[in-house]
């Protein structure tokens, strides 16, 4: 009998700002038409691979919520319980939010942009406290203490925000569920992967998660991690990872 339990991590489909190669962060940007198609394709792949889910988790941001809705609809699993948390939101990119990544690389250099995007401890400059993009002005975060709402984040800070939710909510849910779907964002998911696989602070810079590519983690009955993989075409996944890595370069389009 197969006693493995599974958590599937899924970055949202391409957003409008992904398409435009802009820093997004906590900006609530919708999916592009291609992102919708990617979400449908992810659902079809999971269905073809025989996946079903008992529960799902996502962020407060539209691009992740819509991706989850599309995947669950494709799997005919609209009815399963879904929980949303701000702790699964993308890394906050501070004053970079909305800027073109390639243009920013031309202005500040590819090395600096790489640090902002991938270094574990480097955060962009924060938003001013009175900036209307400050999350404290957004009603969806009204119940979150203001001291917890970021104005910018490094990956370390993103992990510190995301991991408590993983450790206290998602991972313990494996005790009662056999299969869980988590739809979130490139950096919040990178933090979870870093924790699961014991990736070093420096090596995590090399992990690039493509949009709408399911990443499967398998656990035994003791909830120990026993394996991880991307279902589907491995060459296509590798090519898409390379595209993500190139986003912060001057020729990243």
Distance between the termini: 48 Å
How much helix is in the residues?
25-40%
Helical run tally: 8
The biggest beta sheet is recorded as: 6 strands, mixed
Order of helices and strands: EHHEHEHHHEHEEH
Low-confidence stretches: none
Mean pLDDT: 95
Task: Describe what this molecule looks like in 3D.
Helix content is 36%, strand content 12%. It has a six-stranded mixed β-sheet. The radius of gyration is 17 Å and the shape is globular. With 253 residues, it is of the alpha/beta class. The mean pLDDT is 95.
Layout of strands and helices, then pairs:
Elements: E1 5-11, H1 16-19, H2 33-48, E2 55-58, H3 62-74, E3 82-84, H4 101-108, H5 110-118, H6 155-170, E4 179-184, H7 186-197, E5 215-219, E6 225-229, H8 234-245
Helix pairs in contact: 2-3, 4-5, 6-7
